[in-house]
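Subject: for your reference before the review

Hello V.,

The reviewers asked for a structural picture of the protein, and I figured it would be easier to keep everything in one thread rather than splitting it across files. Below is the amino acid sequence we used in the manuscript, unchanged from the supplementary table.
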Amino acid sequence: MLGDEFSKIEDKYELAKVYAMAFDLENLGKISLEIDKFWRGRIMTESDLEFVVENEKAVDLHMQDYVEKCMSDFWIYAFDGSLREMIVDGGHCLEYFYELKRKKILSKDVVNYARNRFEEIGWICKSSLYLSSLYLSLLENFNDACFCGNLDGIEEYFEKISIFSEGSAIKGPCRQS
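And here is what came back from the structure prediction:
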């Protein structure tokens, strides 16, 4: 690699790591554009590629911490069973991450990480929703109504469960007579 130019790009990567660690997205965006501009049109050697991958992984790790910080409120939704609120806020958050990717502040790997974390939190949110005592009580009443052949009870509890679970398909356990 070209000695003086290499030391400048090395310094830029070090700055990028510092900005990423501090979650200074404005400066990280600027330095990322400078780094991108430097590499555009250049042929990379294998050692150049290793250097880039190593430094970008370090920046990505800090940005994953940023994603975790941004998504910390979603855990509250998950354990409350507030799936609707989580989806609305999560959608805005993911749009924000995609915008940061477009500006070359977040890498594709970090955006994928954010999407996967969002799905994990959503799964926990759904699990806590279905394991809540209210849901289990409604499901038990629905099963009892089915077992007794109480059509009014079946309809009533099915409607309550549908409202509670936001229209998700419901399948209760079968009872043997």
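For the response letter, the relevant points are probably these. Residues 46-70 form the longest helix (25 residues). Residues 132-177 form one domain.

Happy to draft the paragraph if you're swamped.

O.
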